[in-house]
Amino acid sequence: MSVLHVAPDSHVLVHAAAAVVLYLHIGAGTAAVLAGTAAFVFRKGSRLHRQVGNAFVIAMLIMSAIGATVAPFLPTPERGSVVAGMLTFYLVLSGWAAVKRQPGEIGAFDYGLLLTSLTVVAASAWLMSLAAQSPAGKLDGQPAAAFVMFMIIGSLAAVGDLRLILRRGVTGAMRLARHLWRMTVAFFIAANSLFLGQQQLFPEALRGWLFLPALLILGLLLYWLGHVGYSAYRRRSRSRALAAPSP
Length: 247
What we know:
globular; mainly alpha
């Protein structure tokens, strides 16, 4: 995130507030990356996994909320960062709720999630059209293709929200998969923002390798989704075998 623009003659408290917002955003982002990495390391369901998971949720919500709120007021407004921050905040919140709320517990919160995911899709489509229409094919430095990713993620999330509402909640492997992919994709967005969006913070020799963290996160997502799906398949197979009549 760029530094907030504050007029030189502004009150000292305004300058202090801008500095606090900046360092809070950076600090929360750093804590989120560390906690997200630890969540992959610790055994799923363990006490340590839950603790670092809670830290990840808090840090990500703070980071994404600040990013989405501040982006329009930067010296060069970053409208894409507003959508990215909104999407990240939504993914973390809905991923956390997937394992905290009981099946059948459907209410205004879930309809709000669906409205948010649809808003992300609509906003991404609008910004993509603005980027495509510009002479440089970019909007605030972002190519039109960048908004396609937000549209795809938002659309998948909206389908999941609608399915959850129609089914009155999700259970078992579907519930775990909802939690897993939303948290991991949010982590992927945060990692991209840090490693690819702030390459100037890293030594020149490392900049050609900064795509690796995001690639690793996607690989871990595919692995865990496959693991969850395979485990669910084995449980169903055992259940059918036990229920089958003896010859």
